[in-house]
Amino acid sequence: MKIEKTIKLNNGTEIDRVGLGFWESRGSEAEDAVCYGIEAGYRRIDTAAYYKNEPEVGTGIRKCGIDRKELFVATKLWYTDMCEGRQEETFYRSLERLGLDYVDMYYLHWPIGEVTKSWRVLEKLCEAGKIRTISVCNFQPVHLQKLLAKANICPAVNQIESNPHFQQNAAVEFCQREGIVPEAWGPLGKGSDLSLPLLVQLAQKYEKTPAQIILRWHLQRGLTVIPKSVNPDRMAQNLDVFDFELEEKDMDAIYTLETGVTKRGYPAQYRYDAVCAETEF
Ligand code: A2P
């Protein structure tokens, strides 16, 4: 199965399938990670207001001297700002912190708060050219169904936690049916899945690393990924996943690692039901 390095979104925009994640990249480490990442070949940068590193990411972008138009920069609206009168102001504060005059992608970070009203603000900013593509994170099918019933613009991407131990296959399949690209945050299980014996064994078989096996598995199941790393070697490794293919039996073996529970220790269904019950659409 040949997998292209880019994927076309439902608004016609092409994005890299592998982007660089910035959750838990802090201070000068985040600034340096932008430069190392661009040097390694990344063009897609994924941050969020909540990550508290937009200024450093912005400094990194300016420091490395790349043409802005070559980059695809994404940030996110945190849910406490998803309420009347705050969304637009918060967006412009993110732009200011990044030192940019538009972002390529802007996400609603959680389906919590005033979802539809916040989505309208994103649609307006998209029409005004301040955001090129609008998307969501952490939406379960039930949230997407409610949003799609009212949205003028369909979200392009749904960024959800997905990794071998917590795969979220129902959400992935729902997105694919609706033409929304599913994207994995924490694709490596925040590093914790790398030592699982099956992945170590597959790494030996394919002469790759466990991280590359996991990332390739995500790509073959149709997800895009934003692995986080601040280490130049690991960054390069995570991009180098287009020259091999996992056999179907190995894809299936990784599917059996599902536990239904995130490493945070709560049953997923419980948490997502609770989030849904609190959410206004
Ligand atoms: P580091 O930033 O020091 O490279 P996730 O993307 O699932 O959130 O995982 C991120 C974690 O996995 C970070 O701790 C990161 O550490 C580590 N990591 C990222 N890429 C690799 C890799 N190729 N090999 C080993 N660890 C990795």
Walk me through the topology:
Blueprint: E1 6-8, E2 14-16, E3 20-21, H1 27-40, E4 44-46, H2 54-64, E5 72-77, H3 87-98, E6 103-108, H4 115-127, E7 131-137, H5 141-150, E8 157-161, H6 169-177, E9 181-185, H7 197-206, H8 210-220, E10 224-225, H9 232-239, H10 248-255, H11 268-278
Parallel strand pairs: 3-4, 4-5, 5-6, 6-7, 7-8, 8-9, 9-10
Antiparallel strand pairs: 1-2
Bound molecules: adenosine-2'-5'-diphosphate.
Adenosine-2'-5'-diphosphate is lined by residues 21, 186-191, 194, 209, 211, 227-231, 234, 237-238.
Report on the structure:
The protein has 11 helices and 10 strands. It starts with 5 loop residues before the first strand and ends with a helix. Helix 2 (54-64) packs parallel to helix 3. The longest helix has 14 residues, at 27-40. The model has no long low-confidence stretch (mean pLDDT 94). The protein has helices at 27-40, 54-64, 87-98, 115-127, 141-150, 169-177, 197-206, 210-220, 232-239, 248-255, 268-278, and strands spanning 6-8, 14-16, 20-21, 44-46, 72-77, 103-108, 131-137, 157-161, 181-185, 224-225. The strands form 2 sheets. It has an 8-stranded parallel β-sheet with strand order 3-4-5-6-7-8-9-10. A two-stranded antiparallel ribbon has the order 1-2. With 281 residues, the protein is α/β, with parallel strands linked by helices. The structure holds adenosine-2'-5'-diphosphate.
